């Protein structure tokens, strides 16, 4: 029997306390002490003891996607806060080790091996990027190490059945594409669309989802240009797209190239499309170098609270976030949305680990696939985490937003893509 993510009972608490003392044994045979049901016997306790949990994260702290290096700062601030003021997670202090892969898949594999085999982490909490996660998930699943809440929205994390130890967190790219397609169907039903996309699984996933979502409508894709992460610039691609004269530009990029595309669009006075930028490149840190005056009216979608939005000024979670970021990450700007993303992801891990029936790798694996409308303070109201046997996507709801002045403004209602478009399958 597994516990739901929010139905924790006194009996479960007793169980967790009973098995806590047996944490920390190696995965080579030692098992937690038997409980009334013996459910935890024989499960892996590498990286977890009665007083600590060791996690490892892999991010591009350098290279073309280094803007994402802000994410682990928000994660570490959250864990430092929980360790100092909440006695950790279930009495266990979290040690979070961060490794740099430079957005290079071979390096990601190397770092994953080091974290698992040398550092002996309990779980890989976040590997960022579709290419890096694709390169590492076979290894993580062969070693039966939870690869929890990977920082990529590729749809395969939720539809694949051969990698039960790996799961995403953020809305998948196909669902995000559906949100943009629905918006255009309502606002510009006869739009012509030009697409800039990263030439890998990330870019192709979102583009493919968009193409499928506009089938049967009056919306037409009239130009496509791809780029490689090794390219110095996307200016040539943007010039080619401008020649199409499309009504809409769909910008499917990571931060560096997202900023370049926005800047190129601003410079092209002869082309004025509605610019839609995907969520992963929608941070104000991407827009600021372009000049806020040049990105007015740009559209995107989101699922977590923007620390720059004044509507959250009195929000308890946002107030806590600002206070603890200043306290535990004094050199980091709380206004950077990637920090808030990290805080939200860490909080989500906290809730999931608390729900585990066993403080083991297997317990975490089962808990992350049995979430029931879990509320996380940094997520938008109406956005919760849910998973199940046939649903490996924790978050599938988003809201549209438009850039105005110096910040994003939400508009429209929360769109639950499960309900609007049906489940996403292979």
TrEMBL record:
Domain of life: Bacteria
UniProt-listed SUPFAM superfamilies: Periplasmic binding protein-like I
Presence of the UniProt keyword Signal in the record: yes
Keyword Signal: yes
Keywords: Signal
A Pfam family annotated for this UniProt entry: Peripla_BP_6
Domain Leucine-binding protein, first and last residues per copy: 53-404
Entry's family note: Belongs to the leucine-binding protein family.
Protein name in UniProt: ABC transporter substrate-binding protein
Species annotation: Planomonospora corallina
